[in-house]
Amino acid sequence: MTHWGYDGLSRQGTLVVAADVADDMVEIMRTLFEVGFPIERVDPVDVFDGDDDASMAANNTSAFNCRAVTGGSSWSEHSYGVAIDINPLVNPYVSQDLVLPPGGTLFVDRTSDAPGMIKDGDVVVDTFAAYGWIWGGSWSSPKDYQHFSTTGR
Predict the structure, then answer these.
(1) pTM value?
(2) Three-class SS of residue 127?
(3) How many CA atoms lie within 13 A of 66 on its CB side?
């Protein structure tokens, strides 16, 4: 997929999703590209040997990753290719005192502005919602600002 890098240049990345959501994902990402939304990098989690923590720390946008849910043992929606994490460093997962990735602590304050930050009611949230995807930033607890899924989990 083509996306705008943080440097303002168009970049190529690889996003792996389930076949039944691929067409919608192409349209979602096309819209984000058209409006100039920056995504720092888009690499399969394989580039990080399947290590979700390393992928998040690199601010890598990814979808498919066969792994358990954070803090649990059941399969994550990422295991089915129906969830995506976008710019996870600037859109961290927040559960009480736990912030993932740890470097995302700087971005817990959602009133600040950073390239690639997702906020309630912005074009990213609205575009995913138009295709039926649910944003983890709208959850009461935890807050998962990077996460969108077709199931709301």
Answers:
(1) 0.95
(2) helix
(3) 2
Q: What is the CATH number of the domain that holds 94?
A: 3.30.1380
Express each pLDDT in 58-104 by its tens digit: 999 999 988 868 877 788 888 889 999 999 999 999 999 999 999 99
* CA 88 to chain centroid: 6
Q: What's the CA dihedral at 30, 44, 108, 118 to 10 degrees?
A: 0
Instruction: Count structural domains, the chain.
Output: 1
Phi, psi dihedral angles at 122 (to 5 degrees)? -85, 180
Tokens 């096309």 sit on residue? 30
- Distance separating alpha carbons of residues 128 and 135, to the nearest angstrom: 8
Question: pLDDT tens, 23-67?
Answer: 999 999 999 999 999 999 999 999 999 999 999 999 999 999 888
> Domain residues for 70?
2-149
Q: For residues 153 and 72, is the Cβ–Cβ distance under 8 A?
A: no
| Residue 25 token pair | 């994902």
| Two structure tokens written together for 104 | 């995302």
- Cβ pair 44, 51 in contact under 8 A: no
